[in-house]
Amino acid sequence: MLFSWKTNLGNEKSKLILKMLPAAILWCVWKERNSRVFEDKEEEVDKVVCNIKVLAFRWVSNEEAFRGCTIDWVMGRWRQFIFEPP
Q1: Rounded to whole angstroms, how far apart are CA atoms 84 and 42?
Q2: pLDDT tens-digit profile of 18-36?
Q3: Which of 7, 29, 68, 85 is the least crowded, having the fewest Cβ atoms under 10 Å away?
């Protein structure tokens, strides 16, 4: 999956987010798995997806393309960057 992940689609912001998404997905899914196994806690899927988006943004927020952008701005335009899961 990671080898075929397309990161050359869209504008500069989209490319940066796409590069971070695989790592953000793996990180958040791993954290959720550990939370369920070791702490007997479970987040809603929508919350995990939101955490993935926030983490990906945090990792690119210091890039020049994202100067002046807020998390609210990015979340409100997520479809423009990537896609919205079904």
Answers
A1: 22
A2: 889 999 999 999 999 999 9
A3: 68
Distance CA 50, CA 48 (A): 5
Rounded Cα–Cα distance for residues 52 and 29 (Å): 9
Structural contact between residues 62 and 20, judged by C-beta atoms closer than 8 angstroms: no
Those residues whose C-beta lies under 8 Å from the C-beta of residue 16, and which sit 6 or more positions away, are: 60, 63, 65, 66
Of 70, 60, 65, 1, whose CA–CA distance to 29 is shortest? Answer: 1
Q: Determine the pLDDT at residue 28.
A: 98
| Rounded-to-integer distance, Cα 28 and Cα 53, Å | 10
User: Residue 75's closest CA among 61, 63, 39?
Assistant: 61
How large a percentage of the chain has pLDDT more than 90? 66
Domain ranges of the chain: 12-83
Spatial separation of the C-alpha atoms in residues 83 and 77, rounded to whole Å: 10
